[in-house]
Amino acid sequence: MKTLLQLILTAIIVLVLSNILGGVEVSDFFTALVVAAILALLNIFVKPILLIFTLPVTVLTFGLFLLVINALIILMADALVGGFSVDGFWWAVGFSILLSILQSLIFSVADRPRRR
Questions:
Q1: Domain range annotation of the chain
Q2: Cβ contacts of 113 within 8 Å, gap of 6 or more
Q3: Cα–Cα distances in Å, from 15 out to 27, 46, 91?
């Protein structure tokens, strides 16, 4: 249930960011939901492989190369999902930064235990 809630919240964030950022377009909520699912799958399966291959560069840049990896994941999702469009690398970097920040904020609020 928690994973489904995170997927829906991520889809809402993707939809909101597409309305804010000019270089990112999502056609509808269902497409945003598919983008959220594809991003989750890419982060589970592809990102660890990219991290292993780029570990020396990541260490050398003190982790800043992770922004490039996140942008590549966004561009892969762009290639896989019809109705989702990112205009270029820098739009993907901005989108990934904002997506990460908003997910951290919203998931921390959603995971907070309720007081009685």
A1: 2-111
A2: none
A3: 9, 23, 15
pLDDT tens digits, one per residue of 29-75: 999 999 999 999 999 999 999 999 999 999 999 999 999 999 999 99
8 Å CB contact between 111 and 80: no
Give the predicted TM-score (pTM) of the model: 0.91
Strands 84-86 and 24-26: antiparallel
CA 3 to CA 44: how far, in whole Å? 13
Amino acid 111: pLDDT:
78
Average pLDDT of the residues of the chain: 94
Q: Are 31 and 81 in contact (CB under 8 A)?
A: yes
Q: Which letter, b or e, does each residue of 78-116 get, where b requires 16 or more Cβ atoms within 10 Å of its Cβ?
A: beebeebebeeeebbbbbbebbeebeeeebeeeeeeeee
